[in-house]
């Protein structure tokens, strides 16, 4: 914990993020989580950590190189942060290895699945492994004998390598030699099922097939030992935010350099002897802040593809998305939108109504315009297909594509080119600002009058992530909202400030930050006047210092504040005289909590907003984000119910505190409330009522 430039307590954002990733690791060690899901959480933890080192740790390493004057101006002690990160990650990696070796592998055996190492292979399996190596792996392993100051091969980003400690057979007193061999997990599956008998399943990792076969690659040498390594490279795109030039071309050029960036993390088997580690540090020009210990295996995000052998009971029970009947069954889609606003809550609800919004518009002769903001796009997208079909049907289609969406830049550029070829009017990012709003608009001519319909969401228009990301989306024809949504598109397409401004929407670059500050100030005034004052916020991340200071001021004034923060939380709750009126929980479970909800008591009026924006400096100051009010009473009630369920979670909610303890929230209740399950059955009861099959499915809190 440290102090901000104004003296109030903060948890450094990257230390807080590591605390969040530990909550993911907690799921991997939770024995109540199905075994294959625990393995997936190991993969999620590893994937998260890889991105963290490619982006955030790379940023800190670069800050270490700047001058003292610049460091002082930044108010950041990157040297201490790097030390803290390494200490925390080393501790977590030790726990990761313990979970895998002492919990996951024995539990797999209990279910008849054996992870086989090379020394465990029987004769038939040895023959299978040797044949597999010769038939599939030999062209990719690329063995290289390392020679000091002469041979230093380039290590590909995130590629797996086996380092080999060698001794000359004919000269045993000669100094040890070193070599590296590539583990071709970029070409082949990481987990290879083996022939087995006795009714159990045997699996070997690709790494161990290379270990078994390495002696063939270095004739004349005795293999003393092998140790795995991996180098992660800096992935940040250094694009000058100039207000001139072709930004898209700059991004294309930077993408080609991403795989050859400087080292941001070198991981190695903690059993590696010092002599080999010292040699590798010199050979690959590594500094002490570059290197981190791990276990025997790296790239553990490959656990996403761990073979399940069709053993269903070791995975989560099915929770099929539920149809949203009022739209999916509607004979007249637009009449249903005119009658009332509609809320869907994915992944509990099916995403079909969103896809139908675009497919219906594409083929409706009364629709003249379709507009959408795309931040991340599915590889196979019915929405994109519908937009291209709409152009063929003679409609004007406008798509704003944010090409600076990290790690999706290349995919977004490909989609942009494909849409342009189909005749879609494509607008790309402009320098200095990311566009992160989740808005779509349809214009339709009805009885000679133009009418607009909008879909406003907290999540991307992405059919795949809609199956695992928990988000809200609202369909509306409310003129207060659709007219201002049109102004957002006008700004994106013309880069001209709308003359009428925004009265209902809060939009980044215009009134988002000031609007939120005014809402908090109102609660502060109410509390000081002795009136009821409350704020409920659900966010992915809370890091922006001015907003945190506002929340501290509100707490000090007596405002009751409830926060549900999935990831980064730089605010420190529970400090006497500062934040004793603030409670923070974090929920990590089967689905990724992604929705943003802002609720202000506001003297009894209760203002409710859904938003694309987290409360981070980048979101509030450097992005076009949208927060939209919920006016429809039935949707307001549903959102309040969902928030009540989440704040009552005593199974998957962790308490966020000054010590980053991540202990599970216990409320003394005998009734276990797991919010994601409760939400699913709340929506299932609602779906049954809408379809005419009203019945109680399971006992629940509602």
Automatic annotation (TrEMBL):
Record has Nucleotide-binding as a keyword: yes
Signal sequence, start to end: none
Pfam families cross-referenced by the UniProt entry: PP_kinase (PF02503), PP_kinase_C (PF13090), PP_kinase_C_1 (PF17941), PP_kinase_N (PF13089)
Broad EC category: transferase
Domain Polyphosphate kinase middle: 125-306
Enzyme Commission number, as recorded: 2.7.4.1
Post-translational modification note: An intermediate of this reaction is the autophosphorylated ppk in which a phosphate is covalently linked to a histidine residue through a N-P bond.
Binding site for Mg(2+): 376, 406
Catalytic activity field: [phosphate](n) + ATP = [phosphate](n+1) + ADP
Active site positions, chain numbering: 436 (phosphohistidine intermediate)
Residue ranges constituting the Polyphosphate kinase C-terminal domain according to the UniProt record: 333-495, 505-676
Keywords on record: ATP-binding, Kinase, Magnesium, Metal-binding, Nucleotide-binding, Phosphoprotein, Transferase
Polyphosphate kinase N-terminal domain location: 11-115
InterPro entries membership: PP_kinase (IPR003414), PP_kinase_C_1 (IPR041108), PP_kinase_middle (IPR024953), PP_kinase_middle_dom_sf (IPR036830), PPK_C_dom2 (IPR025200), PPK_N_dom (IPR025198), PPK_N_dom_sf (IPR036832)
Keyword Kinase: yes
Necessary cofactors: Mg(2+)
Record HAMAP family: Polyphosphate_kinase
Protein name, UniProt field: Polyphosphate kinase
